[in-house]
Amino acid sequence: MKKIFVIFLAVAMGFLTVSCASTGYNTQKGAGIGAAVGAIAGQAIGRNTAGTLIGLAGGALAGAIAGNAVDQDVANERSYHRSRGAYAAPAAPAATDNPPGEWVQVPGQWVGGKWIPAHRAWVPVNP
């Protein structure tokens, strides 16, 4: 009976891990993976249902905390880049230092799946 329960628990944890593995939600991914690893470790250490459940709960908690920390870091990085602008326009050098050309305003656009905001770019002109 114990073997059936352990096999059922392992399969259930596999489904939980796969269902939580969507992109961008590291808290859920961490909880699912932590629960699976915790349940396996709890079973290996305790060799009983109580050990498995304690490992499952502890692993889920630790994984959720770690995943949430990653989510917060990603959110802070995005916020930082939004406040500074994704690409800061370079300051125009002194007129005497410029090779032939001109500064032009480039409108915002999608490039390779990422939004590039409006910026200034130097366009050289052949003499």
Give structural notes.
The protein folds into two domains: 2-84, no CATH class; 95-124, no CATH class. The protein is 59% helix and 14% strand. It has helices at 2-19, 26-46, 49-84; strands at residues 101-106, 109-111, 114-116, 119-124. Strand 2 (109-111) and strand 3 form a beta hairpin. Helix 1 (2-19) packs antiparallel against helix 2 (26-46) and helix 2 (26-46) runs antiparallel to helix 3 (49-84). The radius of gyration is 26 Å and the shape is rod-shaped. The mean pLDDT is 79.
What are the defining features of this structure?
127 residues, alpha+beta, 2 domains, two-stranded antiparallel sheet, 4 strands, rod-shaped
Determine the fraction of residues in helical runs and give it as a percent range: 55-70%
Poorly predicted regions are none
Order of helices and strands: HHHEEEE
> First CA to last CA: what distance?
86 Å
Outline:
The protein has 127 residues and is of the alpha+beta class. 59% of the residues lie in helices and 14% in strands. It has 2 domains: 2-84, no CATH class; 95-124, no CATH class.
Describe the protein's topology.
Elements (H helix, E strand, L loop, with lengths): L1 H18 L6 H21 L2 H36 L16 E6 L2 E3 L2 E3 L2 E6 L3
Antiparallel strand pairs: 1-4, 2-3
Helix pairs in contact: 1-2, 2-3
